[in-house]
Amino acid sequence: MINRDFPILEFDQDRNAFIRPERFLAPIDISQRAVLCFFIDAIEKILKEYPHKVVTNLKGEGLIIPVYEVEYKGEKIVLVQAIVGAPWAAGHIEELTARGCRKYMACGGCGVLREDIAVGHLIIPVSAVRDEGTSYHYAPPSREIHMNDHVVEVIETALTEQKAPYIKAKTWTTDAFFRETPAKIALRKEEGCVAVDMEASAFMAVAAYNNVDFGQIFYAGDSLAGEEWDNRGWNSREDIREAVLKLAIDVCLRL
Question: Is residue 2 over pLDDT 90?
Answer without folding.
Answer: no
